Amino acid sequence: MELSRLSRRAFSALAGTTVLGLALGGSVSSQALPRSGVRGPVPTGPPPGPPGADGVRHRIALDRYSLLIDGRRLALWSGEMHPFRLPSPSLWRDVLQKMRAYGYNAVSVRLAWNQHSPAPGEYDFSGVRDLDLFLRTAAETRMYVVLRPGPYIGADVDAGGLPGWLTATEGTARTLDPAYMRHADEWLSRVNAVAARHQYTHGTGTVLLYQVDAPQRARLTRLHDKLRADGIDVPLLHADTPVAWGEAERTRDAAEARRVHLDHLAHGVTLHNVHTAFGGTSWGWLSAPSAPTPTYDPTAAIDEARRPTDKLAPLHQLGQLLRHVPDFTRLDEAPRVRASDARIQVRHLANPDTGTHAYVARNDSATDVTSTLPMGGTDVEVTVPARDAKLFATGLHLGAGRKLAYATVQPMMSLSVGRLDIAAFVGRAGESAHLVLDCPHEPWPTRLDEEAAWAYDHGKLHITVPLGEDRVTRLRVRSGESDRTLILLVADDAASLRLWPYETPSGRVLVHGPALLRDVALDGATIRLTGDTVEERGLEVWAPRGITHVTWNGEPVEASVGRAQSLMAVWPLPGVPELVLPALDGWRRRTENPESGPGYDDSGWTVADRRTSHSTTPVPDGQPVLFADDYGFHYGDAWYRGRLTGAAGLESVSLAYSTGARGMLMAWLDGEPLGTHRMGRGDDGGEGTWTATAAFRLPEELRTALREKHRENPDAAAVLSVLVRRTQHDQDAYKAARGLTSAAFEGASPRVEWRIQGAAAPDPVRGPLNNGGLYGERWGWHLPGYDDGGWESVSPASFPREERRQGVTWYRTTFRLDVPPDVDASVGLVLDGGPDRDYRAQVFLNGWNMGEYVGNDPTGTPHTFVLPNGILRTRAAANTLALAVLADGEAVSGPVAPRLELLGSAAGGVPVKHVASPGRRRD
User: What's this protein's family per the entry (predicted)?
Assistant: First the structure.
């Protein structure tokens, strides 16, 4: 957990004004002023409406409580999403709509410099790198943006997002080194040229905040000046920000997520960031050694397949609370209260404007704790589950003079819809919820569901509801003194995920029932709803006055007015139809690595004869630089070929190499395998760099062959071929070497001439991180349209073959999906593991590198590669699947019967455009 703090001096460095605001370019208020013009804190009031590119200039300020948008307090509930981890721009809209529906009002966006820049001075913001498109989509989905362009972003990305070519240049990253700053400024200038067009201050987009990478104060000041010169005038966030930024690192489950985020709230944070809202895929060679598997953040609340997880409920509840209950945007620490059981720790806060009190009760013990807690002058019995937390409130206004005296469950929202006041409370299934309302006039409660019970006594309405699994219980409260009706909703976690508030220009809407609500439009007397269903579900809609008709995804819904004064569908919304995926057959197979043969023509390869390097890894005395980055090969596999003259008595070869996590080395001498070495954590030479020496003793037959070769031709050279899976650069030691670092020989002292080969020119569409240096990659074996007709046919039953071979084997097949156009299906590729399958497999879908599989799991646990729609053709179109398998000669050279798996589907979704996936050019 990170609670960021920015000192007053840092505020002054950023703004040159008071700590109450950031005055940048004249568009951000330097002070927090109430509407009356009297100096002092802005009082609690209605939050600003949903953002958009509305053409209106906006003022952004910050006081010690919260952000102020045009003089209104905003509690920012931001979720982190990395567009570069979802290489299908159509799906950006899907994830942003889901985030918005689940309570987020902002998306925190990191930009990976290495994805956009294949070489110094070259930048690409097209296709899956289209920042302008992402920012437009964020505005269209009514999400604020917190932009985090680095240059260094961390995020478990290769070199922390720094481009591979930077590893071989002068200068030290994240300093004021002129050599580094020249490149970093150029990157930021390219980003800022796009970002400046989307600033909320200008009304041309929803970029609200800009987080800078400035580990040193001097760099912070310089960055401030540069960003202002580039036209960036939204507030800047530094890594040390106070109330401005409360960021939680990964949490394991719903209970920990609730505990962490409620703790932030308890400490007065009103700018929250959830890391991460959507995990995504570290496809290609994107990931850092700290997260070497393709699945990024399996703990994310919206998983890699874009499905909600169990951890989503507390985030959804808290996000809706902060959006719809403005009391929580201005909280002061209140007098301390204690629970009767000391295992429950309590933080007490109060809003000085509204009289609302908040109590965050935290239980760090291993057992559920029931205790009394003083709330609003009453000792209330509450239960806090083990290693969990709860938020309780008193004094919360519920409309028409009614107040919440206290409750044993958490408030989720309080909003007005037409002549209705609606309040929702949430708890765990199996609990009994007790709510007490202060009612100035005797109420007329009506139980709308059988579970609710109520009693009125001395001005207080007591309501009891046993919380059932996935169930919403409703109660209607009227009185003769007001024409406004209160609808109380009490739900468990599962049911809360089917409550969808939505803000329209004509007022608020609340929808209950479907799996997701994406959009709402009011059209005369009709409310048009767009969303997703998974199972058959009822539909209930609370809408502004005058709405009498409902459509769902464009189809009319027969509805009538229910007792809760809602429009209720007569028939359930349909679920998603069953989908059947095809079996993967028609496989073809071909071996490669001709580079291991002595007769292979390497005359076009780069000569490795440099003597100095900008790497932090020392160059061994008397040896040339062998580091792959120094020769322009920054991602994927690298081949080395050394011509050894005078190797007649050679007995053994020792090859020192350096990689990220899960590196590997294979060696051959004159085409004969010497063996395979794998990098393991036991060889750890640093936090994210692993170093080892692979020692190979020549078999007697090979030693004899070398002597015979020398006898026949004393000038003949032996060829040492080495394949290194060099893997990722460390985030914090990006200049550490990758690839071979040195070679030593016993029994002879041969003269060695080295050549190196890695990836070909970067794929102009898929980017620099897509390909490595395998022979098949250089010749397009992974691409659609490659003619594999001459390859060997392999049936699934004989896949893989029993043949054991050190080297690289490719498998290819094609398949078609026929998903209905109104269904969003998430599909994965499953590769089985096992102790007899210690191989590496690079997975390519339509030429896109979906990541690496490491098959040495002794438990046999399979890995599922999520195949993103757009790259995956789901509408009756062909897909090309290719696997590049590296095996050591002892394990089988491939997976057993790879298969497709349906990870989830929904009726609805968003329109998906094909991602450009060019095939191999014909010779």
Answer: Belongs to the glycosyl hydrolase 35 family.
